[in-house]
Amino acid sequence: MDEKPRKVLQLIDHDFEDLELWYPVLRLREAGLTVHLAGEKANEKYIGKYGVPALSDVSFNDVNADEYDALLVPGGWAPDKLRRFPAVLAIVRSMDEQKKPIGQICHAGWVLISAKILQGKKVTSTPGIRDDMENAGATWLDVPAVIDGHLVSSRRPPDLPEYMQAFLSVLKS
After folding, report:
1. How far apart are CA 147 and CA 169, in angstroms?
2. pTM value?
3. Where does the chain have alpha helices with state H?
4. For the chain, what are the domain ranges?
5. Contact between 43 and 37 (Cβ < 8 Å)
6. Segment holding 75, helix H or strand E
7. 70-73 and 7-11 beta bridge pairing
8. Which family does it belong to (predicted)?
9. What is the predicted pLDDT for the residue at 4?
């Protein structure tokens, strides 16, 4: 990437989509970035939809968004839980206000909807939440990955290569 160490925050809760959490984490770490997982509690084991565990590094309440260069939100059923935490919505809004890259895939759009940052944006997601995205004021596109400014969205696990190429390109800019 560049000489400056970069830090990315990935949100986590139980029933995250295993590939949508781990594929981005591994790609970013391969690119030399530091990735921290933020959950309701620090040092908590969270289990994905298919049983793959992940350990949180920090709690939502202890996150300082200013310390991170980007944010990732995995899909699965976790987004429906994540969007209920005021601290999560504050993190998303702060990253959005600072125009830092925010990546969301599949059902993760629910978190951005609840943070009320999608009005006038172009996005994609799993088709199952298309209506939710459009009702939040976004224009929904049925493509593997969409970049709209600092927001990067994707539909589902088969689109992960395009999603991460798009996310990395926004992170580099």
Report:
1. 10
2. 0.96
3. 18-30, 78-82, 86-97, 109-114, 130-135, 160-172
4. 7-172
5. no
6. none
7. parallel
8. Belongs to the peptidase C56 family.
9. 63
Asked if residue 155 lies in contact with residue 124, where contact means CB atoms within 8 angstroms, the answer is yes
- Distance CA(32)–CA(17), nearest Å, equals 23
Selecting among 14, 36, 107, 150, the annotated active-site residue is: 107
DSSP string, 32-63: T-EEEEEESSTT-EEE-TTS-EEE-SEEGGG-
Q: In what order do the strands lie in the sheet with 7-11?
A: 58-59, 34-39, 7-11, 70-73, 102-105, 151-154, 145-148
Tell me, yes or no, if 107 is annotated catalytic: yes
pLDDT (tens digit, 0 to 9) for every residue of the chain, 173 residues total? 445 659 999 999 999 999 999 999 999 999 999 999 999 999 999 999 999 999 999 999 999 999 999 999 999 999 999 999 999 999 999 999 999 999 999 999 999 999 999 999 999 999 999 999 999 999 999 999 999 999 999 999 999 999 999 999 999 98
Of 164, 169, 146, give the one whose Cα is nearest residue 19.
Answer: 164
Q: Which CATH class is domain 7-172?
A: alpha beta
Residue 14 annotated in active site = no
